[in-house]
Amino acid sequence: MKPNRPDITKVTHVTHATHVTAPRSFLCLVLLLALSLPALANLSPDRLRCEYLDNPLGIDTLQPRLSWVLESTQRAEKQTAYQILAASSEALLKADSGDLWDTGKVASDKTLHIVYAGKPLASSQRCYWKVRVWDKDGKASPYSRPASWDMGLLSPQDWQGQWIGRTTDTNSLPAPLLRRAFTLDGKIKQARAYVCGLGYYELHLNGKKVGDHLLDPGYTRYDKRALYVTYDVTDALRRGKNAVGVILGNGWYNVQTRAVWDFHKAPWRAAPKLLMQLRVEYADGRIETIGTDSRCTTSTGPITFDSIYGGETYDAREEKPGWDTPGYDDSEWSMAQVVPAPGGKLAAQMMPPIKADRIIKPVKLTEPKPGVFVFDMGQNFAGFAELSVRGPAGTKVVMKYGERLGKDGMVDRADIQQHIVRVDASQQYQTDTYILKGKGLETWHSRFDYHGFQYVEVTGFPGKPTLDALRGVFIHSAVPVAGEFECSNPMLNRIWGAGRWSYLSNLQGIPTDCPHREKNGWTGDAHLAAEQGLFNYAPAAVYTKWINDLGDEQRPT
């Protein structure tokens, strides 16, 4: 709770109770000033959100919904009115000027989903807003801390880039690298990157990965809807030479593993492709846009196989150091192909991204057979393992993931693998492979898959590993925590904790049925888990996206 400003009674009490030798005229002035100040409410708005999100980038809702949370040190307080200001600049908002929208005083106790009704908003426009409220006694609060949202690209004409790829062959296994060097000729005020890379992508600027998102964009029916993500890349760019690089993964767009669910036969299936543009606003007001087109170059890299079901294979000997920097020599790379669009409409990804939640260290390491090492993470979760290893170039370390052990101490995957084996027993499943380059300590984890597991079975490790050779990374949609539970019964506490682990492990851009086998959004599983999820977390933005998925799948009838 925030401390409240002293009310007028306390101020005058302090003034009269203090026997000082200050001139009577000064004391009278203090008293008059205090009496002239309006009494402030015992209520304040906080946690401002737009479309369920904190300061979102890339909103494509023309009239976004605004919400806030009330805080007070008093019981039984309530909001009786509110006023929202929305401005086109921070300076105007600070001056209490709502040049985009000023609601005036609205008599209402509503704090959720106030629909923006100000001036029409344009693509890439940034809006700053704040709110104040009136309490049950009609006293006004100060304005809240400012919040903001960015509009995305609102029409197809706003996209100046083209869809590009390395190949149109869906059976071409190496993950594509795409890059473009460019020059910026002024002081940068603000820059945004708008990216749709299917099935998954990783964005790099000037030698560094942009942001901390994983497995972007969210899984959709791509021939109906494809999501793009907006990034603030102001600090990643510089005056002069720059380079953008993107790695593409198959994801759900080009499923490689043949299974009874037939996603390898999906009507949207195509080779990985990219649509991206950078919008740079200079300090002098100029706007420059750099988009993907046939001037981009492409090659293959160290990811030689990736599959949402099968896992990932990474050959570190095939790395191309500096491929995402301005000075890299890409003269031997091919020119990117302009390829057909996926067919679905482009929509903003208006939900929390998938992120790494925490690092999980293994609690036990066994060697059930010579050269076979099993790491027990002590907890079932969704994510991947991060490997640290030294050894000769060409050494192949294989990591198989599973939720339980057999009687022989090996990872038992018979139940979860049956839908793959029935189609083709030779396929790999829930398996990551790393091939060493032989240069010091090498640390790696997969980029374009995730697994459900407690145990990791490692073969091919040079020498005998220690517990430090492997650690787990727990990932899920980064939804805020909304509630906690604890009671005197340890069993109930454990059940509650297990439910939270299960819910988050199955929240990967959609509510899934399981993180180890099907990884799909069957409606029964999601429905049964929804109430528990809403008590514990704030996943409404993820559910909104998922409801759009259900709409995209409905038949015309």
Structure summarized in a few sentences:
The chain has helices spanning 8-17, 24-36, 90-94, 414-421, 490-505, 523-536, 540-553, and strands at residues 44-50, 65-71, 81-87, 101-102, 106-107, 114-115, 126-134, 147-150, 164-165, 176-184, 188-198, 200-205, 208-209, 225-232, 240-249, 273-282, 287-291, 297-300, 303-307, 311-315, 334-335, 337-338, 345-348, 354-360, 364-369, 372-389, 396-402, 404-405, 411-412, 431-435, 442-444, 451-459, 470-477. It has 557 residues and is an alpha+beta fold. Strands 19, 20, 24, 25, 26, 27, 30, 31, 32 and 33 form a ten-stranded mixed beta sheet that branches.
Topology:
Layout: H1 8-17, H2 24-36, E1 44-50, E2 65-71, E3 81-87, H3 90-94, E4 101-102, E5 106-107, E6 114-115, E7 126-134, E8 147-150, E9 164-165, E10 176-184, E11 188-198, E12 200-205, E13 208-209, E14 225-232, E15 240-249, E16 273-282, E17 287-291, E18 297-300, E19 303-307, E20 311-315, E21 334-335, E22 337-338, E23 345-348, E24 354-360, E25 364-369, E26 372-389, E27 396-402, E28 404-405, E29 411-412, H4 414-421, E30 431-435, E31 442-444, E32 451-459, E33 470-477, H5 490-505, H6 523-536, H7 540-553
Parallel strand pairs: 14-23, 20-30
Antiparallel strand pairs: 1-2, 2-6, 3-4, 3-5, 3-7, 7-8, 9-22, 10-15, 10-18, 11-14, 11-16, 12-13, 12-15, 16-17, 18-21, 19-20, 24-33, 25-26, 26-31, 26-32, 26-33, 27-30, 27-32, 28-29
Helix pairs in contact: 1-2
